[in-house]
Amino acid sequence: MPVADSSRSSKRPIVAIVIAAILMWLAVGGLGNAFVWKAVPRELPAQMPAKYLPVFEALASSTFTALSLLYAVTAFVAAIGIWSLKRWKGHAFLLWSVAVLAVGVWMSVVSSNLLPGGVFSIAFFLIPTAALLAVGYWLVARLPVLPDPSA
Questions:
Q1: Which of 9-13, 67-71, 86-90 has the lowest mean pLDDT?
Q2: Checking CA distances to 44, which of 61, 89, 118, 132 falls within 20 to 30 Å?
Q3: Would 7 be classed as within a structural domain?
Q4: Is pLDDT above 80 for 66?
């Protein structure tokens, strides 16, 4: 009977485990955002300062629900691709990155009345976030691909 060699190259890299776990956690957060904001009592806005009302309304909107679901689904798919070390893992991470930037830009626009610099403050979100996502993509793209067992 052959003994399994634990030093084989098919061992999942720790980077893949960490990134997949983070993405899975973020997928759960995206699902939570998609549904929790719809459930917030409608009396709550009456208790908050008027400048926050547009943000609250935006978070309870169908647009935010759709963006949150897009974020959650793409994070989940990217996590599966990275965990499984599939050939398409980089594409899935890139799609999730686009969803992250879309949610961030949309949130910056709807809350621009609260941000110093207004809508121009989007750059302060977009540039560092895009840089972090680029580093993440760089890491994911360098992960090995496991051979397809059905091939």
A1: 9-13
A2: 118
A3: no
A4: yes
Confirm if 103 and 66 have CB atoms less than 8 A apart.
no
| Cα 53 off chain centre by | 25
Cβ–Cβ under 8 Å, residues 79 and 89: no
When pLDDT is averaged across residues 84-89 and rounded to a whole number, the result is 96
Q: Does any domain span residue 149?
A: no
CA–CA distance from 16 to each of 81, 85, 139, 141, 145 (Å)? 10, 8, 9, 11, 11
Range of the domain at 66: 14-141
Domain count for the chain, please give it: 1
| Contacts of 15 by beta carbon, 8 Å cutoff, 6+ apart | 139, 143
Query: Considering the entire predicted model, what is its pTM?
Result: 0.84
Q: Is the pLDDT assigned to residue 2 strictly greater than 50?
A: no
Instruction: Name the one residue in this structure whose structure tokens are 């990155």.
Output: 97
Considering the domain boundaries, does residue 18 fall inside one?
A: yes
